[in-house]
Queue: 2 jobs
Job 1
Amino acid sequence: MDDAMKRCAVDWATFSPTKDAQVDAVVSTLRKLGWKVTDRHTSKESGLTSLTKGSWNLQVTHRTHEGGDYLSLLALRDSQACEEAAGRAG
């Protein structure tokens, strides 16, 4: 990933056991830090919460299924510079 893209995308993930209450605590902390929940989808085995703050869009994904849990946070910056950097990278 080039330097321009490093300013446009941030991710973090774990395959450690994660309870729904822990995911809710993460989202609650993000809200206290100024992130706004824009969408939320849940099912028996997964949950997805979308948040925004300024030019950033963040997705918190939690999946539970046979074989283990998965928790992921992916933040993408919505800007002309990031669109151009993605175009050069792809």
Note: The two ends are 10 Å apart (CA to CA).
Job 2
Amino acid sequence: MKESILVKLLSAFISMFLMSFLCVIVFFPDEIIGMVLFGAIMFCFLYLLGGIPVSLIISKYINPNRRTLWNTCSYVFVHMLGGLVVTIIFMFVSEPDHSIEMFVSEDMMSFYGIGAMSGLVFSLIELITLKLRRKSY
């Protein structure tokens, strides 16, 4: 269990910087340094409070160490859904005054895409970390 949490923390740390850099390149190409730091802080918050607990729950039901195509694809897909759910929960918590129409608007679709992409990046980095760890033994 302790080793699993360390792998998830390492995956979250790498994913945090990768996602913040990618989001800055797409949304704020002129303000790289400041926005990468802001994005890293924001993604750190999201991964630590949302991503890692969701990933621990997913790992209870889908074993990431089994090497079957179905298992790997379902693990990645459920992480993408988890990233989407964490994004929706974050938006409900941070913007409680807005109506439900805001959450289904076109402007929010990019945030939902970022949430799903965050889950994808996190799960792929975690699978790569697990594979490298297996090779080292």
Note: The mean pLDDT is 77.
